[in-house]
């Protein structure tokens, strides 16, 4: 039995734009918090419940984005912590999931408050409310521009590190040869950063709420349709709830190592490895970070080959950042 290994290889599977995204989210939080303070302060000074309510509404989105910012910070600081066996790349998906839950709660609260407003209408100061909604929309559009995910589809290939373990086992009735190889090919695929996406959805949801409010208030002031304001609140709540559900499913799938129906990575691996002689007997593929996937591949072959032989076949698949190959001699083949 011979074992050779590279000690101290990296398990850093953060997204390619991790630090850029982290900086932008902190900037958006500062922008949102400043707007929140101005609105609550002005609302208190001028006795405007509309201003105060919008200020507290912005505080909920700022709090949700704080989850994303802290997740980026924690993932970066603990990226080299060996206790995180496959790195901290999936922390963003956990934050995205938590943020989606908050988004769903905001949508439900919006819907409930709108229903109460429909049943018990209040007098609306249209001019002031429209001004607040417009300013809020501008802040949200600037935030959305800052949080756009425009670098998630770049590929950066880095030469990896490999360590292999060879084991030979003799038994009375048969002889099996097993070789294991772990490869670290740090490539960035087009993986979506669910942490950034959750923050983006929060500001887009807020922007959509502002647009719906502006439309409702303009029509309300022109035709006296005061019911439109709470009605738009219900519509907005339902749309945001749908977005929250999509984000929950997406981030939850990553956390549970679920391979989405449209993901063709397992098929790519099979096409690269399998021949008339070589067949894959066991295959596990899962995401370990934005644009990073890990795979465990068990290959049965009639002629013993070094795991690096199969590793070379997988080298062109950039999404694979951590590969373990096990080679077993199949005498029956």
From TrEMBL:
This is CDF family Co(II)/Ni(II) efflux transporter DmeF. Residues 155-191 are annotated as: Disordered. Keywords: Ion transport, Membrane, Transmembrane, Transmembrane helix, Transport. Residues 173-191 have a biased composition (Basic and acidic residues). Residues 25-256 form the Cation efflux protein transmembrane domain. GO terms for molecular function: zinc ion transmembrane transporter activity. Residues 155-172 have a biased composition (Basic residues). Its main location: membrane. It is a multi-pass membrane protein. NCBIfam families: CDF, CDF_efflux_DmeF. GO terms for biological process: intracellular zinc ion homeostasis. It is found in: Membrane. The chain crosses the membrane at residues 25-49, 55-74, 94-112, 124-147, 199-219, 231-248. GO terms for cellular component: membrane. InterPro entries: Cation_efflux (IPR002524), Cation_efflux_TM (IPR058533), Cation_efflux_TMD_sf (IPR027469), Msc2-like (IPR045316).
